Amino acid sequence: MENINVLVVEDKPEQSTKLVEILKENNFTISGTATSFREAVDIFYAQNIDIAIIDIFLNGRPDGIAFAEFIDAQPNGLKPFIFLTSATSREIFNRAKLTKPYGYIVKPFNELELIYAIENTIEKFYGQEDSFSAEDENTIISDDNLFIKKGKALKKVNVDDIILIEVEEKYCNIITEKEKFVILISLVKILDLLDTTKFYRTHRNFIVNIRKIEEIIPQDNLILLEGNHSATLSGKYKDIINKFRTLK
Amino acid sequence: MYFAEKKYLLILFILAPVLLFSQKAAQSNVFTQQVLDKSTKFDTNPYFAKAKSFFVEKEWDSTLVYTMKELSTKTTKSELTDYCHFIRGISFYEKKVFKEAIKEFAKTADDFEFHNNLLMYLGSIALEQEQFTKAIGYFKKIETFSEQELLGIKKKNIEHNIGLCYLHLKQFPEAEKYLNESVRLHEKDKDTLELVGAYGDLASLYYEQYKDAEAIPYFEKAYGLAKTTNDFLLKQHTANNMAVVEEHRKNYPKSIQYYKEYMIWTDSINDQEKLYALGQAEQKATVEIKQKEVAVLKAENKAKQAELDTYLYSAIILFVMFGVSMYLYREKVKRNKIINTQKEDLDELNATKDKLFSIVSHDLRSSVNAIKTSNKKLMTTIETKDFHKVGNLLQNNSSIVNGAYNLLDNLLNWALLQTKQTRFEISKLRLTSIIDHVAYNYKAILTDKELKFENTISKKEVVYADQESLKIILRNLIDNAIKFTNPNGKITVYTHNDDPDFCQLIIEDTGIGMNETTRLELLKDTTLLAKKQHEDIIGTGLGMQLCKSMIKKNNGTFSIESELGKGTKMMVSLPKMMPS
């Protein structure tokens, strides 16, 4: 599991320090701290970013909104962002609203509010609201990553690292090369959201990453995967074999 | 000279026959009566009867009109036509239209009863027109008839007229004969007026022939007779004649006396005329005065009418103005009422604001003052390096600052709410998370006060509200709960979910509670609590006020349940659905 990468755009050092501190404490990775629109753009291109926290006013100007507009204009690199504001005037709020932000954090904020805002923003951005805050779920699935709320911490897993997903009742065991962990998500949702070109269901309880398959043994109803993992192949899902180019 | 005077006399005598004839006309009652009597058989003809009555009254024009009408009815008998023409002739004669008169007389039949009278009229006309020979012809025709046959014509008049004609024709012997005859007849009849004329004419006759000796006695006779009459014209003529006669006799004083007399009579006549003219003038003047009066009255009337109109219009205008002013006055009163109530409201609000100001500034002052003294203490304590004490002091400081900060925060939010500057966006909110976020800030205080805080709200509870204002509400309610709960107490936050539309959030503490008065006071609108029995803990009431306003804005309701010494339940109901 990896940390979430956060870009902080904030001109006041004490504010950004506080922000960075809280984020680090909560196992977020800071991609960079920008104090101006220019710097923010530079970091945006140079670093890996999952989410941006933007103060609306940079050096007395509403450059934060300009940066949000810049992010909105990225064709492929669209990222979720949150506005950080003090008690907002309606005028500024209306302008900020035009950039369709996914969340606001009103200063002064506490740790819980910040984390909640980040989670909420990711939920909204991927259109899977109530995934973190609901009682029976903790995962958001995007094309590239799974965002998982582990306790208080928010983590992500690159879907390409996943070898095998083992479904058990209300939860799933995610097995990657390095680790094995449990997420709370319904099977329906996971099947609906996972990239079907990458993942196949082989059994009532197994979903495998096609690229991680090493060997299929139909007579044993067994699929051997990387890292000595294996999954069951049930008769109902045997047509998986047809999806591979086989030597004849 | 002499000729001229003679002519002067002549003019007098031309007048004489006219005078004479008029006298004849005046005495013509006999003749008129004759006409009436003789024509009674025609009284059945209404026009003729009318014409006759006008004839009697000498209304010549009307007589002419009715006789014409009678003549135009074709059934008239020839005798009746004769009467009509006769009467018409007389009428024309009287109006001096002699030509028409002659025509009318000519239309009568020769055997007409009044043929002689007709001839008499014709003679008179000829005489008037100075056709003396012709006149004599007419007169001579009837001269020989007896008085009865002449039907009212007096023989002496005929004689007189013939004499006059001869006199004019200067056939003096003939004239003398006839005039003498007429004088004789007049004297016989004692007809004074006509006698004067006859004497005058006879005297003129002699005078014309320069037979002064014979003429003068007649003049004097005429003069003497005239004096006895009331006829000014006769007196004037005779006096004038006497004056001329005396003048010729070179008896000037007498002449002058006669002239004077003549002048007197002339004056008398003139006076009469003058009197008449005067009367006319007077009448005219009176009429003019009357007219003037009428004009004045008219003008007055007009003026009065105008005045009346003016009054009427003024009254209308005044009435309208009165109505308008009444309306305006009522409007003004209404407006004043509104203004007054607004003023009262404003005054109240202003008083509230002033109170708020003083309390807030007082609170802030004491907070800052507390920090000041605490800092001083801190500095001295640092010197003693008693770090445990330093820690305590710092904690004390931070709690003071927290209180001040909350106050300021509320103040700011209040200002934003009042000026409607703040952004307000209702969205779906997970209650439990929001409670956790708010409670997070009180962690230290809760621990410090050894209070147990419990949020038992399920993750499923969702309300629709504006996030920031809900946080302000919760902050104040939790702050209050902490404030009024003694150490080792417990604060529980939970929901009641019976209502399908509203979620009731309850913040319950085991604090000191409040009495009913305070409770009701807190729920009242626009009430700010002053500091009361709890010097340290009861605040401005601004927080509660803010809560109520915010809850209202979020379409929620607010209520309090409390028991003194046992605790308080603050209950906020918020909508579960997106308000439409």
Explain how this protein is built:
The complex is a heterodimer of chains A (248) and B (580). Chain A has 2 domains: 5-127, Rossmann fold; 161-243, Beta Barrel (OB fold (Dihydrolipoamide Acetyltransferase, E2P)), CATH 2.40.50.1020. Chain A contains 6 helices and 16 strands. In chain A, strands 1, 2, 3, 4, 5, 6, 7 and 8 form an 8-stranded mixed sheet that branches. The radius of gyration of chain A is 21 Å and the shape is elongated. Chain A has helices at 13-25, 37-46, 63-72, 90-97, 111-125, 187-193, and strands spanning 2-9, 28-34, 51-55, 81-85, 103-106, 139-141, 145-150, 153-158, 162-168, 171-176, 180-184, 199-203, 206-209, 213-217, 222-225, 229-232. Chain A is α+β, with helices and mostly antiparallel strands. The two termini of chain B are 142 Å apart. Residues 1-27 of chain B have low confidence and may be disordered. The longest helix of chain B is centred in the middle third of the chain and has 133 residues, at 252-384. In chain B, the strands form 2 sheets. Chain B has a 5-stranded mixed sheet with strand order 2-4-5-7-6. Chain B has a two-stranded antiparallel sheet with strand order 1-3. In chain B, a hairpin with a 3-residue loop joins strand 6 and strand 7 (567-575).
